Amino acid sequence: METFSDKIRQASSEPIPVDVRSNVRLMSPAVYIYTSGTTGLPKAAVLTHLRLWNLSFVQSTFGVSSTDVFYLNLPLYHTSGLMAFTGTIERGSTLALRSKFSASHFWDDCRKYNVTVIHYIGETMRYLCSTQKRPSDRNHKVRMAIGNGVRADVWREFLNRFGHISVKELYGSTEGNIGLSNYTGKVGAVGRVNFFHKWLLPYAIIKYDIEKEEPLRNSEGFCVEAATGEAGLLISQISQKAPFIGYARDPKQTEKKRLHDVFVKGDQYFNTGDLLWIDEENFIYFQDRIGDTFRWKGENVATNEVSDILTTMPSIQEANVYGVKVPGQEGRAGMAALRLKEGEPFDGTGTFRHVSRYLPAYARPRFIRIQNCLTVTGTFKHRKVKLVEEGFKPDEISDRLYILDDKDKCYVPLTQRMYDSVVSGMIKL
Q: Could you tell me which residues come within 8 angstroms of residue 353 by beta carbon, excluding any fewer than 6 positions away?
């Protein structure tokens, strides 16, 4: 590793000579941004100057102006933080930049710097809602929140507690060639089907086989669009208007994200790796990532939905849901890593009663793991890969483990003897 700050101090303060950038075009690489690595190793996505400009114009589409004060506490090495940063440059607005997110200092900072626009991602809003309530919760000038990944229940709680703030939910990925925005403010949606947008940048939600981990194709070998209300894989056509550059020096991973002969011979689409669905009013909702959704008892289980249900329990602070392999069983059984609220014990009977009330039998976590903290990425996305690999082995995991007991209607401690009985098939899941 080489230092960078000392080289910056030695650099000339004179404008960069024109000849240095004479060969730079809109499609030239501008930056490398590493993906989160939630379902594998991070990869360096190539962002062109054109893409960087497009990201920088997002704030203008929502009405952010030069008079706004934008509050940012996300890492600048990731797309969301960089987009917010370059957007304030494009707008000419003021940026209040914090080195690290702090839920306890968030609103104090907003009041101190007269913040009018905030940026969020993943669990940011839920962290804010979990702080102790104060009389000053609505005493601020924030009028707008821009970001992605807020759940519908947290969205409502955030507005009820902190006042009327216009939430602009986005959908997109670092390397992707498609972006959606909830311009109507519909709680829970990431966008709405817009004829002009779809005509200009064609995309579709297609049927997807969770078990085989591939799109469903008809007798002619072409993909089939998902029905209204049916979750499917979001794909976006690769074209000159919507190019897919891929990953730096990694053609194999780049090709993995391309789908060929989707609707006609020779066409190409970008595989977002995300499952979304459209309601009868044409609003679009995010359901889960392909790697996160799993199949159990012949049914598809969306980890986000199970997490949402678990975190509505008063004692549960965070929930990270995933599927684990069980010897001799088809598919993967649901497991949840939980972080409890400070001072709260795990209530096995209450948790059983809660999941039984709100979740069908196949979606109820068969195993629960209690952790002091859940591992997240720099942008607050839960990491699952290691948890999936570790499974539910009591002799290898120091955290408390529980198993769902249908007979006693409770989650009971998972012992080594019980684990052996599950593996041998004596205990039926």
A: 409
